[in-house]
Design goal:
Elements (H helix, E strand, L loop, with lengths): L1 E3 L8 E7 L2 H7 L7 E3 L3 E10 L2 E15 L6 E16 L5 H5 L7 E5 L3 E3 L1 H11 L33 H14 L3
Parallel strand pairs: 6-7
Antiparallel strand pairs: 1-8, 2-4, 3-5, 4-5, 5-6
Bound molecules: zinc ion (2 copies).
C-alpha cells in the first residue's frame, strides 16, 4: 500500500488494507529459522495524519500463520496481533544519525523519500516482530522424549526421567574426537 504524501493532511484519516503475505513469507524463510508461514494476507488497520513535514501512523496488524512447534514438532496455528506507531520524517542527506538519537521505545522513527510513502516495509517489520518468538504449540508443551521420541503431550512413555546426562556424555565424546 502506497500513499501520496500530498494526500496526508492534518486531518486524521483511517485506512484498512490487506498486505500480501508473499514477501513476508520469503523473509520468514531466510536463514536457519523457518518457524512460521503466513496463511494469508496481513490485515492492517491504521490512522494517519501530518504535523508539518512529519507523518504519523498508528494502527495494528493481525495475521494468522502456521508453525512447527520447537519442542514437539507438531504443526499449529499461531494468530498474532500487534499495535504500532510510526513517525516518518523526510530524508535529508546525512541526517540519519541525528534522527536515530530521537528513537523512543514505543515509537518507531523512519524516513520517506519523494512524494510517496510505501507502507509495506512498516507492515513487514511489524509482522516479523510479531512472529519473532520461539514457536511453541502451547506455553507448557512437554516436547518429545529424548530417548524414545514419544510426544509427551499425548502420553507418558515410561522412560527414565534423567536422559540429559547421557546426551551430554555423547556430546563430550564427539568434541574430543574432532580433529584440530
Ligand atoms: Zn509442542
Ligand atoms: Zn521415552
Amino acid at each position: 500500500m502506497k500513499l501520496r504524501v500530498d494526500d496526508i493532511t492534518a486531518e486524521v484519516r483511517e485506512l484498512e488494507f490487506p498486505e500480501p503475505e508473499g514477501e513476508i513469507n520469503r523473509m520468514l524463510q531466510v536463514g536457519a529459522v523457518r518457524d512460521y508461514c503466513l496463511n494469508g494476507p496481513v490485515k492492517v488497520k491504521l490512522a494517519y495524519y501530518r504535523a508539518g513535514s512529519e507523518l504519523f501512523f498508528q494502527g495494528e496488524i493481525a495475521a494468522t500463520a502456521h508453525g512447527s512447534c520447537a519442542r514437539c514438532a507438531e504443526d499449529f496455528v499461531a494468530s498474532r496481533g500487534r499495535a504500532f506507531r510510526y513517525v516518518l520524517t523526510p530524508r535529508v542527506l546525512g541526517d540519519d544519525d541525528a534522527k536515530a538519537g530521537l528513537r523512543a521505545d514505543d515509537l518507531e522513527f523512519s524516513f520517506y523519500d519523494g512524494d510517496q510513502v510505501d507502507l509495506a516495509p512498516l507492515v513487514r517489520e511489524q509482522t516479523l516482530l510479531a512472529y519473532s518468538t520461539l514457536p511453541l504449540c502451547r506455553e507448557d508443551c512437554r516436547g518429545l522424549c529424548p530417548r524414545c521420541g514419544a510426544n509427551l503431550n499425548e502420553r507418558e512413555c515410561g522412560c527414565s526421567a534423567e536422559p540429559a546426562d547421557a546426551r551430554l556424555a555423547v556430546l563430550r565424546t564427539l568434541k574430543l574426537r574432532r580433529p584440530n
